[in-house]
Amino acid sequence: MGRVAVGAAVVCTAAVCAAAALVVRHRMINSRKWTRGLAILKEFEEKCGTPIGKLRQLADAMDVEMHAGLASEGGSKLSMLISYVDNLPTGDEEGLYYALDLGGTNFRVLRVHLGGKDKGVINQEFDEVSIPPHLMTGSSEGLFDFIAAALAKFVESEPEGFHPPPGRQRELGFTFSFPVKQTSISSGTLIKWTKGFSIDDTVGEDVVGELTKSLEKIGLDMRVAALVNDTIGTLAGGRFYNQDVIAAVILGTGTNAAYVERAHAIPKWHGLMPKSGDMVINMEWGNFRSSHLPLTEYDHDLDAESLNPGEQIFEKLLSGMYLGEVVRRALLKIAEEAEFFGDTVPPKLKIPFILRTPDMSSIHHDTTPDLKVVGTKLKDILEVSNTSLKQRKIVVKLCDIVAYRGARLAAAGILGILKKIGRDTVKAGEKQKSVVALDGGLFEHYTKFRVCLENTLKELLGDEAAETVVVEHANDGSGIGAALLAASHSQYLGVEES
């Protein structure tokens, strides 16, 4: 009896030992996997590094590319497009002006009442109109007739006392956010459609001419005074309120920058020197690239699989369209190589662009002790439940790395513009303010991104110069800015009211 008991005890002890060994082995495997995950994270952080020295090199490279792009067409990855905007608003503009903002499947028509220095923008009204899908792939005439009809309907609601006097035309600022070769302040030929539009007979045509034909057809006497893009509209809107605005940057789904250049510093400009001596340049800075950019394997893969491989490299590092996607790709590698979410990779994690930048922002701004928001987002988006606090912290860290890299690169780009126009240092006896107007959802809503950008710019400039440079949020440049540019390029400037 005693022997049996002893034997059972021995067997039992062996089983316990085996189980314990399994636990230890499991822990060791888990520990190895966790170590591998942390190693991938560390390598990613190092590759995304943006030390101040590197950012200064990038600012210098931006300055060099700006010079090259101004010297000749095709001289740089930066197009440095001449906008023909040589008069920015002074704040004195008065009267009623219209704007048309066409940049996607909806367009807006606006009416802006300007009251000059003392009153600024007295009133603004707008309507938003959806474009029927068949018109996005139909004929040029069909699309512009539809837009003209919407404009005419909007004009009908114009207040009684604001009808133009006999012989005067209403004037319109036209924001057209598609690739255009500008030929004057009020003309430009369409290079290609994007954003789901495909109307062959508009390509190569002057979009202002197409709109004007449709307006004339229905008897609406309205002149397009300015054809602009949203970045230049933001610059105009900023300048109306603050004469120290010298540049504008859009940080939204995409990114771009525009700034005020001295006309004599544009070798490729062969026209008459504008009276103002200035010319606004649309940089198309999303296409900037340099050997100093901190690119990772995830960025190279994202670029290779994109609709425009090799193009818009800067944009792919810092705009809202791509930030969440870079985080997803890095998280996928950790899930595959370190079994971050267990034996199987969550199928949803393999879907490109499933993690949007607004979701990434929510994750990044989670202040709950147990990172509850992160857990909810992972469950809602990737269908991963029961994540540990350790796992959630890793996801937040990925957001940290990608957002801060983007914000710091944007700051380096702004420094490049300031260098080009000599506003990056304080000259003896000068305390000239330089204001950069910023717009776009990424800048407006992603607080950590915005704060990092502002702090990095201060660090790059140094205390003295940082006191003279201001980053200011300028809202709705694409709409109101176009109306302001119609006012500053009015055919009636300097003409007395009859």
UniProtKB/TrEMBL annotation:
Keywords: ATP-binding, Glycolysis, Kinase, Membrane, Mitochondrion, Mitochondrion outer membrane, Nucleotide-binding, Transferase
Enzyme Commission designation: 2.7.1.-
Location(s) in or outside the cell: Mitochondrion outer membrane
Pathway(s) the chain acts in: Carbohydrate degradation; glycolysis; D-glyceraldehyde 3-phosphate and glycerone phosphate from D-glucose: step 1/4; Carbohydrate metabolism; hexose metabolism
Catalyses which reaction(s): a D-hexose + ATP = a D-hexose 6-phosphate + ADP + H(+); D-fructose + ATP = D-fructose 6-phosphate + ADP + H(+)
Record bears the keyword GTP-binding: no
PROSITE patterns on file: HEXOKINASE_1 (PS00378), HEXOKINASE_2 (PS51748)
Family matches, as InterPro entries: ATPase_NBD, Hexokinase, Hexokinase_BS, Hexokinase_C, Hexokinase_N
Ranges for domain Hexokinase N-terminal: 41-238
Cellular component per GO, a single term: cytosol
GO molecular function, one term: fructokinase activity
Membrane-related topology note: Single-pass membrane protein
UniProt xrefs under CDD domains: ASKHA_NBD_HK_plant
Superkingdom of the organism of origin: Eukaryota
Keyword ATP-binding listed: yes
Family the entry assigns: Belongs to the hexokinase family.
Designated name of the protein: Phosphotransferase
Native source organism of the sequence: Pisum sativum
